[in-house]
Amino acid sequence: MTQIGVDVDGYSVRCIGPATIETMPTPDGPLLVRGATRVVDDDGDDHRVQRPVVAVCRCGTSTRPPWCDGMHKLLQNRDRQRQNDRADR
Ligand code: FES
């Protein structure tokens, strides 16, 4: 059994799996985790993993923590729009 701890913005998770676990942060997005069968969050809630690769939220705004639900893209698009609006003034 392999277990690694991962610190993400504001909290941490433990990724647990039967063999090697690989993680890869995406630019301004989630942490991709390969090889985990469980992800345990700070509250001790145990989330079963049923896919070869899962995306763990790193921005803290997901409505389905610990998983990324794409909310980071909406916030980035909103921020870009605000910057464009300011530049247009
Ligand atoms: S990284 Fe947080 S919602 Fe995607």
Automatic annotation (TrEMBL):
GO MF, one annotated term: 2 iron, 2 sulfur cluster binding
Keywords, in A-Z order: 2Fe-2S, Iron, Iron-sulfur, Metal-binding
UniProt domain Iron-binding zinc finger CDGSH type: residue ranges: 34-78
A single Gene Ontology CC term: cytoplasm
InterPro entries, A to Z: FeS-contain_CDGSH-typ, MitoNEET_CISD
One protein family per Pfam: zf-CDGSH
Xref: SMART domains: ZnF_CDGSH
Protein name: Iron-binding zinc finger CDGSH type
Organism: Microlunatus soli
Lineage of the organism: Bacteria, Bacillati, Actinomycetota, Actinomycetes, Propionibacteriales
